[in-house]
Amino acid sequence: MTIIMIILGMSFVTMLPRVIPAFVVEKLQFRPWINQWLSAIPYAALGALIFPGILSVVPDQPFIGIIGGIIAIILALFGLNVVLVVIGAILTVFLLTL
Q1: Which pLDDT score, from 0 to 100, does residue 49 have?
Q2: How far apart are CA 93 and CA 98, in angstroms?
């Protein structure tokens, strides 16, 4: 019984900070520059997650990952679907490692 209460308590404490902003942020009005800054956070987080992986695709040859990342950027600038951008980058890295 104690374990169930601990699990329920931990799930509530974890869920609470995730649910509250969904209701509170909707009612707040921010200045335009704050909205612009907040909208850039997902891209910054995504870049922080992807960039180390680009450099460590082939540990001895980081330029292969960099070339794959550049190809992905070029394909994205052409407005291709995200799936096609990822496939293009993967195919580039695969061909360079042969």
Answers
A1: 86
A2: 9
Q: Are 64 and 98 in contact (CB under 8 A)?
A: no
Give residue 90's pLDDT band: very low, low, confident or very high (50, 70, 90): very high
**Distance of alpha carbon 81 from alpha carbon 75, whole angstroms:** 9
Which residue blocks in the chain are alpha helix, DSSP H?
2-24, 32-55, 62-77, 82-97
Parse the chain into domains and list their residue ranges: 2-97
**Per-residue three-class SS string for 59-75:** CCCHHHHHHHHHHHHHH
The structure's pTM equals 0.60
- With contact defined as beta carbons under 8 Å apart, do 66 and 41 qualify? no
Question: Given this model, what pLDDT does residue 91 score?
Answer: 96
3 state DSSP class of 26: helix
Q: Report the candidate in 48, 49, 52, 95 with the shortest Cα–Cα distance to residue 71.
A: 95
